[in-house]
Automatic annotation (TrEMBL):
Its cofactor is Mg(2+). Residues 1-22 are annotated as: Disordered. Belongs to the PEP-utilizing enzyme family. Coiled coil: none annotated. It is an enzyme of class 2 (transferase). Residues 195-267 form the PEP-utilising enzyme mobile domain. Its EC number is 2.7.3.9. Residues 293-589 form the PEP-utilising enzyme C-terminal domain. Its main location: cytoplasm. This is Phosphoenolpyruvate-protein phosphotransferase. Residues 34-153 form the Phosphotransferase system enzyme I N-terminal domain.
Length: 619
C-alpha cells in the first residue's frame, strides 16, 4: 500500500509528536534543523538566502500636495494594485487546482478591500484631513487591523477565533503595504538573482511575496518565523511548495549555495546532507511528484473503495468565497455550512432578507448537490458584536463552552431561530437543502426546534411563499457526550446525525480545543473518542438514520481507514482535503479497515492506536 501522507495538522501525526529539539548534528557533519511543517512534500536544492525587503515608511504625515493630487496618487496606486492582483489571478489559473482553491479567495478578498470598503472610506476621510496618501493608507489599515484583533472582553480571543482575527488583521496590513509600495513604486521582494531550483531561505516572507513565488523555480521555502495557520503558510501549501516555518536561528546555520533537504511533512531542514540522506531524499521527491499528478485527476474519479464500497465526500464551508473551491474539489455537496460568518463581523443582526440572499445563492450554485445549513452555533469562546449589542450574547459566564451555546442560545431567543429557519426554508426552493442543529444534548431540544421549524413553514405557506413540497430534513450535530451516549434516542427525533468530532473530543476529554496548554490532551486518537464515534455510527444504523462526520479528523488521511472501519460512510471536510482523502479511499479494502478498527478498539491508549495506524499504512 502506498504511504499516505497528508497536509500539516494531521492528528494521526500529531498524536505521537513529542517536543522537538531545534538542531541535531550527525557524525557525517549534516545538521538537521526543525521547525513547523507546512506539509507540501520534499525538496533538495542549494540555499538562496534572501535579505529582508527594506520596510517602507509612509514618511511625513501631512502632505505638501493638494488633496486632489493625493487623491489621484491614491487612485493610481489602487489601480496598480488591482492590476497586480489580477495578474496574480491569471497566474494561479495555471497552478494545480488545489493551489487555486487556496489562493483564489484571498486574492478576491484583497480586490474587494480595494473597492468601496471600510478601508477606502478610512483613507478618503484622512486625505480630506490633508494627510499624504501613504500616511492615510498606513493609518486606515492599522485602524482596521487593530479592530480585528481587539478583544470584546478581558478574556480575549482564543484558539481558532484569535488565529482568524490575526489573519484578517494581516490581510488589512498586507493590502496596506501593497498600496504604500505602489505609491512609492517600490518593488516587492525580488527573486531575480535566485537561481532556478534553489531553496529560498529568509527570515520572513509576506503573503504577497509568497504569492509571487513561481513553484517551477523555487523548490522549497525555509523561514525563520511564521506559523502554520498564517496566510504565508496557506499560500505556500497552496502553491505546493514544500516549506518549513519557524526554524529558529535558521540564518545562522547556513550560507548561500549550501545543499539543503527540506521535508515539508516532518518540518525538518537538513543542511549539508550525507550521501545516504541525499539518496533517501531523492526517492521521496520522486514519490511526491507522482502523488501530485495523481491528485489532480481525483476530481473526476468516483469516491469508491478498492473493494467497491461507496464513500460520500462533502465539503465544509465557512465563507461564501470558498464556494468555487467546492466545485473544483469534486465534493458531493456541502456537509456543513457554518452560518456564523453572517454574524461574526456584523454590526447588526442579519435580517431574513440578508440571510436568504446568501443561502439562496449558495444553494443555487450547488445545483443538484445538497447544501447542509447549520443554524447559528454561537456561544462558547465565540463572540459577536451584533449579538452582544442585541442583548443576546456576551454575558460573563465562568465556563462559556458549557453555557448558552448553539441550540440552547437559539431556543432561549427563538426569534433568531425563526428568522434563520424562514430564510433557509425559502432558499430550499432553489435546490436540495438539509438543516442542522448544533450542540444538542437532549431530545426536548430537537422537539422544540422542530415545533418552531414546522410553525415557520406553515407561516410561509400561508403567505403563499414557495418552499417546495416536503420540508428539508432536520438533523443534529452529535458533539456532546450526552448526545453521543443517547444517539439512538435522538435519532428517533432527528432526520440525520452529523458527528462534530472537534467538540466531541473537547467535551469528552475535558480539554479545550482552542487551548495550547492542553493541546497534548486534546487527542482524537484517545480510545474514548474512537469508541464513541463507533457507537454513534452503530446507533444511527440501528435507527436507519444517516450519519456523517464533519469534524477536522475527516480530512486526516491517516485516520480515513480507521473511520471507515468504525462504520463511517460519509464525511465532510475542507474542500482542499477532498482529493487527497478520495485517493486514500480508492486504495482501501473494507475488510482490512474493519480489522484495523477491531485492533484499534482493543488498544488502551492513543500511543498504541497511533502505532496501529502507522503499521496499517506501511503494510
Ligand atoms: C465540530 O465540533 O466538530 C464541528 C464540526 O463544529 P464546529 O467545528 O463548527 O464547532
Ligand atoms: Mg462543533
Amino acid at each position: 500500500m502506498q504511504a499516505h501522507r497528508g497536509s500539516s495538522g494531521q492528528s494521526g501525526e500529531n498524536a505521537a509528536r513529542v517536543t522537538r529539539s531545534r538542531l541535531s548534528v550527525d557524525v557525517s557533519g549534516e545538521r538537521v534543523l526543525k521547525g513547523e511543517p507546512v506539509g507540501s512534500g520534499f525538496a533538495i536544492g542549494p540555499a538562496f538566502i534572501a535579505g529582508e525587503a527594506p520596510a517602507i515608511e509612509p514618511g511625513s504625515r501631512l502632505s505638501h500636495l493638494s488633496r486632489e493630487e493625493e487623491l489621484s496618487r491614491f487612485h493610481e496606486a489602487v489601480e496598480r494594485s488591482i492590476a497586480q492582483l489580477r495578474k496574480l489571478q491569471h497566474r494561479i489559473a495555471r497552478l494545480p487546482e488545489e493551489s487555486q482553491v487556496e489562493i483564489g479567495p484571498l486574492l478576491e478578498v484583497y480586490q474587494r478591500m480595494l473597492g468601496p470598503s471600510r478601508l477606502q472610506k478610512g483613507v478618503l476621510s484622512r486625505l480630506e484631513e490633508g494627510l499624504t496618501a501613504e500616511a492615510a493608507v498606513q493609518e486606515a489599515t492599522e485602524e482596521l487591523a487593530g479592530l480585528m484583533v481587539a478583544t470584546p472582553d478581558e478574556n480575549g480571543l482564543t484558539g481558532e477565533d484569535a488565529a482568524a482575527a490575526e489573519r484578517r488583521a494581516g490581510e488589512f496590513r498586507e493590502i496596506g503595504r501593497r498600496l504604500i509600495r505602489n505609491l512609492g513604486r517600490e518593488p516587492f521582494l525580488s527573486l531575480a538573482a535566485m537561481p532556478d531550483g534553489a531553496i529560498l531561505v529568509a527570515e520572513t516572507l509576506r503573503p504577497a511575496d509568497a504569492a509571487m513565488i513561481d513553484p517551477a523555480r523555487v523548490v522549497a521555502v525555509v523561514l525563520e518565523d511564521g506559523g502554520t495557520t498564517g496566510h504565508t503558510a496557506i499560500m505556500l501549501r497552496a502553491l505546493g511548495v514544500p516549506a518549513v516555518l519557524a526554524v529558529a536561528g535558521v540564518l545562522d546555520h547556513m550560507h548561500d549555495g549550501v545543499t539543503l533537504v527540506v521535508d515539508g511533512y516532518a518540518g525538518t531542514v537538513t543542511v549539508d546532507p550525507s550521501a545516504r540522506t541525499l539518496r533517501q531524499a531523492r526517492k521521496q521527491v520522486a514519490a511526491y511528484v507522482q502523488e501530485r499528478q495523481q491528485l489532480g485527476r481525483m476530481r473526476r474519479l468516483a469516491s469508491r473503495m478498492a473493494s467497491g464500497e461507496k464513500i460520500v465526500l462533502q465539503a465544509n464551508l465557512e465563507l461564501p468565497a470558498e464556494l468555487p473551491l467546492i466545485a473544483q474539489s469534486g465534493a458531493a455537496g456541502i456537509g456543513l455550512l457554518r452560518t456564523e460568518f453572517l454574524f461574526i463581523n456584523a454590526e447588526t443582526l442579519p435580517d431574513e432578507a440578508a440571510q436568504y440572499d446568501i443561502y439562496a445563492a449558495i444553494v443555487s450554485t450547488m445545483g443538484a448537490d445538497t447544501t447542509t445549513i447549520r443554524v447559528l452555533d454561537w456561544g462558547g469562546e465565540k463572540q459577536a458584536e451584533a449579538l452582544a449589542r442585541a442583548g443576546i450574547a456576551g454575558r460573563d459566564v465562568v465556563n462559556p463552552a458549557l453555557g448558552l451555546r448553539g441550540i440552547r442560545l437559539l431556543l432561549e431567543h427563538p426569534e433568531l431561530l425563526e428568522t434563520q429557519f424562514s430564510a433557509i426554508l425559502r432558499a430550499a426552493a432553489k435546490g436540495p437543502v438539509r438543516v442542522l442543529l448544533p450542540m444538542v444534548t437532549v431530545a426536548s431540544e430537537i422537539i422544540a426546534a422542530r415545533e418552531i421549524y414546522d410553525r415557520v413553514a406553515r407561516r410561509l405557506k400561508r403567505k403563499g411563499i414557495d418552499i417546495g413540497e416536503s420540508l428539508p430534513p432536520l438533523g443534529i450535530m452529535i458533539e456532546t457526550p450526552a448526545a453521543a451516549l443517547t444517539a439512538g434516542v435522538l435519532a428517533q427525533y432527528a432526520d440525520f446525525l452529523a458527528i462534530g468530532s472537534n467538540d466531541l473530543t473537547m467535551y469528552l476529554l475535558a480539554a479545550d480545543r482552542a487551548s495550547s496548554e492542553v493541546a497534548a490532551l486534546y487527542n482524537p486518537l484517545h480510545p474514548a473518542v474512537l469508541r464513541m464515534i463507533g457507537d454513534i455510527v452503530m446507533a444511527g444504523l440501528m435507527e436507519r438514520c444517516p450519519v456523517s462526520l464533519c469534524g477536522e479528523i475527516a480530512s486526516d488521511t491517516a485516520l480515513t481507514p480507521l473511520l471507515i472501519g468504525l462504520g463511517c460512510r460519509s464525511f465532510s471536510m475542507s474542500a482542499s482535503a477532498v482529493p487527497r482523502v478520495k485517493q486514500v479511499i480508492r486504495s482501501l479494502d473494507y475488510d482490512a479497515c474493519r480489522q484495523l478498527a477491531r485492533r484499534v478498539l482493543a488498544e488502551t491508549d492513543a500511543e498504541g492506536i497511533h502505532k496501529q495506524l502507522k503499521r496499517f499504512r506501511t503494510v
